[in-house]
Amino acid sequence: MSLNEYTGRTIELEVSRKTEYGYFLTDGEQDVLLHKNDMNRELELVEGSTVPVFLYVDSMGRLTATTTIPTVSVDEYGWATVVDRKPGIGVFLDIGLRKDILLGEEDLPVVESVWPEQGDQIYITLRVNKNNRIYARMATDPVIESIMVPADREDFNRNVHGYIYRTARVGSWIYTAEGFKGFIHESQRKREPRIGEKVEGRIIDVKPDGTVNLSLLPRKQEALGEDADIIMEYLDSRNGAMPFSDKSMAEDILERFGMSKGSFKRALGRLLKEGKIYQEQGWTYKKEQESSEE
């Protein structure tokens, strides 16, 4: 088996000879350079000894060895950090090597707005193309299912966080810190999260197979507070009076406040109960403002 077939994998090779650039390693038939810049500086090698190395192709297209063993390799999955994003090309990932690995645009969503950004985390493996170049490949559903931890009913309503590994208009799929595989329906998120983005949510359903459904929306009480704050901020921007009330049209409320009429009415009810507002002739006023506008 040619050493080229070990590209993207770890192999143990024999130290053949030392050069000014590092060491040549061999499998008995083919030599490969272990450059001094690809070595642990504390490592001392002698001819005839063996050393585990990871094989990859350098920027000149040459097969190269490194004593840095990444957590990800061909057929082995691990987490990688996004270090750069190039529109029309893909994103580059740090797996511990001197050379960053490309996750090409063909393996990413068509919509670039949900591509990973710097600092995002992606669960990947490596693939080698016909030119012996190494690329990243994202984990698929079956891979996530093979490592997932099944949730149980006691996990219902639990707060969790994790990383998005697949996303679409209908929803997003997440792998949580607990090892749960989860799905976030489009109705349970305010926006479509990026691949690799860390998100926090709560479990709203536990399926018989141990997978979970998550919501990224705040709990009703938390949302009520946010909606009430939005209304008060709008009142402040209009000197304490606005031409909206619980009788306003749903589409007008959605356009102005970005919330449903039900959410708007609940927030108004809270503010009325707290004595912060009052309503008169289809208008809403801050409590301290007693005069109405024409």
Summarize the structure.
With 294 residues, the protein is an alpha+beta fold. It has helices at residues 141-147, 220-237, 250-257, 261-273; strands at 10-19, 22-26, 31-35, 50-57, 63-66, 78-86, 90-94, 101-104, 121-128, 134-138, 159-168, 171-176, 181-185, 198-206, 212-215, 241-242, 277-280, 283-286.
Which term fits the overall shape? Answer: elongated
Task: Tell me the number of structural domains.
Answer: 4
- Indicate the percent of residues in helices: 10-25%
CATH homologous superfamily heading of the largest domain: Nucleic acid-binding proteins
Percent strand equals 35-45%
Instruction: Report strand order across the widest sheet.
Output: 1-2-3-5-4
The CATH architecture term of the largest domain is Beta Barrel
Return the string of H and E elements: EEEEEEEEEEHEEEEEHEHHEE
Largest sheet geometry: 5 strands, mixed, barrel
Terminal residue distance: 88 Å
Q: List low-pLDDT spans.
A: 289-294
> What is the fold-level CATH name, i.e. the topology of the largest domain?
OB fold (Dihydrolipoamide Acetyltransferase, E2P)
SS summary, helix count: 4
Mean pLDDT value = 90
Secondary structure category: alpha+beta
Q: Please write the CATH class name of the largest domain.
A: Mainly Beta
